[in-house]
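Quick start: read one record
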Amino acid sequence: MDDIFTDYNQTRGYLNSCYGYVPTPDMDRASYTDESENADINATGSSKYDFWYDGNITSSNYADYSTDGSPWSDLYTGIRKCNVFIEGMRTATVYASEEEKAGWVAQARTLRALYYLQLIKRYGGVPLVKSSVEIGHDFSQDHKASFNEVVNFIVSDCDSALMVPDTEQGFHWAIYDNQQGIMTRAVAYAVQSQAVTYAASPLFTDGTYTWEKATSINAEALNQLLSHDYKLFDDKPSPDAAQNAYALYFITNPNDQRSYDKETIYQVGGQRQVWKYAGLPSTTGQEKAGPCPSQELIDSYEMANGQSPIRGYADADHLQPIINPTSGYDPNRPYEGRDPRFYASIYYNGAPKTLGVGGSETQPFTLELGTANNLSATEESGVYLLTTTGGDPFIQTSPLAEKLNGYSNVVLTFEYKSNTGIEKPEIFFNPIAGGRSTTYSNIPPATDWTTYTIDIGASVGQFTWGKADDFLRIDFGGLAGKDIQLRNIKITESSGEGSPIETFVGGKEAISSTNIKNTRTGYYLRKFNNYRSGSGNNADGYIRLFRLAEIYLNFAESAYQSEGPDVNITAGNLSLSARDAVNTIRTRAGMPPLPIGLAKTDFEQRYRNERRIELAFEEHRFFDVRRWKILSETDQFVTGMRIEKAGNNLSYNRFKLTSRKSTADKWLLYPIDQSEVNKIIGLGGENWQNPGWLD
């Protein structure tokens, strides 16, 4: 280890190795909440959801049936590496400026704080290991720190990191070249915000973090983020790209150094494949319907006028909704006039599967080929003969003579012959930077002229490509010795809404109680899904670990608890009430503001519903109902909507799905893996297991 901290590259390499232990957010976690019922239930009869819903989980098998396994070991591995790095840097002789070394340590401290946050939100109090553990360490002397003791350490670690100057070599706000995924000042503030909001919540509060203290920290976090060019994503999409700014945000690649997406604070994990693992059975290549949104979630979306359509239920099974008579909700047309986020997040019966602007197929745009790299290119009578000669072979097309028309479907077609075929062709959409590329399916060998079509519509929308003078760069795999002849290279546009979703009994996407590819509830997930996605063309989006909207909501929660809904909180340039913060979220969504003067209990109900809608399928609901200690009220079962069609008439029938047995108090926290607990019992006699989980 001493050798590592004398060498620049090895020191940086060890810091890099500290990363990568945060559990990746997963849309499937929604199936462990009242957000959805998973299509695996009753399909296989032995899925992890069957075990979870039946309550057949122990501390020994929890990892097999939860959405992220048991991340205890991974998170402590990350913490250990951060501890080693922080200690090593105290005596490091590596040749680097003091500013750069301080920046590295700030990254490690923030990363360690993030790992501890991920631990305590799952397990509650955990052992607080502040230094590297030697082989001869006496584990019998260790003990579990309380939740709030760990939060104190998290806040302190982030404060220490934030004392390092905001410079390129220090601890900065900006994301510089090749720095996507590293800790920044924004992450430190986001970690503090979530940690103190949880610490003041009913499940974890012990008086250490009052709502007043949480408000102070949340206000400073929000002030700093807003003062450094973080803002809610509000770009209005073209009609064929997405329904609204909220929908476009979740299919926008955040890996852009904050040049376009200024809402994302930290991204973990790559691009989702909603179309495949939580998709529509009418999509070629779809494997399962995944988490199917519940009727309770549907009922929580307000009407566009800001009124709640459903005020509760007259029966214990949620089959008799209490309709708000002034809301405009029509039970015979239940999906009309709802919050715009509903249309961005849910596929419902009658929803348009695709988006378009009208019109028919346009005259094709003909392209020629030009500048090449590691590729021999000759042209004769309109036929291009291309042979790759080295790594990263590519060729650029001629620019568009005029802009595309903006229709929904855009395809690149050409005729080709090839003895070798082309593996994983990649197309870059100028400018050639910032991840503006998509990799497509292999082009197989063909001895005769063959027409080939690549659907580039999703990328055209995602990268806002198609202006006059825009061009493509086509990369032909990464190997030399590949050949292909091309002719008649064209881009063609066409529009079309596509047939609407049919979840009614007997429809294309019909509800089913047994088929894993079909919805259990009458609904499918649309959030994160780009309708252009399909086999060979994944254009789906991303689940952010932290984004600015959550910080607004964290601030609103602590502020209404400590000061009431309408009292302005001042921090630096910030002057905002809890209601103002929620209304900022609602304005981006296209919803009317919450009224002034709501009683605290009424505001709490509206706030919790707003959080449920805004952060749906982003893993927050799972933890929110636990920290609020309402799990037994929310998660005992969910309902669905079975629709039957007779002629042109539809009848809507609510139904209850199987009750769940995973709502007792022990389910408020993860169990620690029993093998880990047994080790500590054997070493020192102390039982670290969380309440109710001792096998």
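The chain has a mean pLDDT of 93.
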